Amino acid sequence: MTEPDYYRILGLTTSAEIAEIRQAYRRKVRDAHPDAGGDPEVFHELQEAYETLTDPVLRLEYDAARGTRKPPWGNRRRPGRHTKSHKVKAWRVNTTVDKPANKNAAPTTPPGAGEVMSLPWFVDIDPTKRLRYTPSVWQRGGIAAGIGAAWTYLTIQVSALVLASDTITVLKALIVPYMLLVAGVVAVACFRGLRPTRPTSFIVTGVVALVVVWLSGATLGGILLALHLVASAVLPWSVRRVRIAARLRAAVRSALKDFNAFAPSGAKPSADRRTGAVLRTLLERLPAARLFVRVPVGVHRAEYTVVCGRRVAVIAPPVPRSTGDSGAEALPSAVHDVSQLLNEATVRGFVVWPNLPVDRISGADAVIRHLSAPDAAGEIGRWLANDPYTLHLPTLRRLRDRLAAADGAESARKAPPRSTIEV
């Protein structure tokens, strides 16, 4: 995307020094601050311009993107593309021993020599490992097959026991039609709609099975018949679970396999420079991470929602990018709404600050954490990396459906130009 002119925003030339940039920022930010009645959009642009031009590395990249100067050959990258993930290996710091001042002096070891450096949070994550889908069709299919085999065995045993016993001839004549009727009912129940089975049906079946055991005097035939009734109720439930898992996988697997960022129709996943760097790191280092941009929840929109396994991180900048987005103040409400939507996942909120204020420091177990931009990727990634290879299909499907249900016209509405990078 086209980079905004940060020099024009601050009223500077491209050769401005750090002191001039700071003076221009302080002069303009007083009137643009939202607390002083200024425009939040202008305040946000001033913040991004100041952060970019006062950081030597970011300024070099910014000037290179605008064509003012070219970066070193080793730092050139194609815009809008992710760097390929490489397998991370553990290493040990090779330190050298200082030379003694004279031959008789004992060698001195610098502090920290020989110690192992702290490894990155993603060191144990293999980006080439195959992803798992949950719920698993194969796992649920195996359970359903086992229940089906048990039901078939009980059907044969009950029928053989009744036919071989000295019971009334009428019961022997009715046992085969009864079993065929039960088999037909079970087959219809297995392949009807995918509505979840009500708990009352299992309760009624259990009560009937206990009554059968009591009336039969806990004989072998009564116990087998009671188990057959229970299996007849559980088998349709297990088959419907397999069908639900298969439908979920067919609905979202292809999209999740080919893409890792999703946004409402007509919008592109974009972020300011620092937040975009955090999001890109999470997507590169966590194989199962998927990004959802501007998810409508409640009265707000969760700007950036990163899902990895059963954990969901709602990430927001301190100041909302546009009306309706969740900034630092509205993030608790957005996290609560996302938790209500994704009741099977653990949801936390993270605010990424350029410079973390002292009064915003929070504990590691807080539901809403405030982090500085340099530490955000490591802290969020370490929390999301609990299960980096699992795609939880129900969570991803709910978020995708929520994006699809968003108002297309509002989703396509563009905000004023600002520093954005594709993530």
TrEMBL record:
Pfam families: DnaJ (PF00226). The keyword Transmembrane applies. It comes from the Bacteria. Residues 75-87 have a biased composition (Basic residues). Keywords: Membrane, Stress response, Transmembrane, Transmembrane helix. Residues 5-66 form the J domain. Residues 68-87 are annotated as: Disordered. The chain crosses the membrane at residues 142-163, 175-194, 201-217. PANTHER family: CO-CHAPERONE PROTEIN DJLA. This is Heat shock protein DnaJ domain protein.
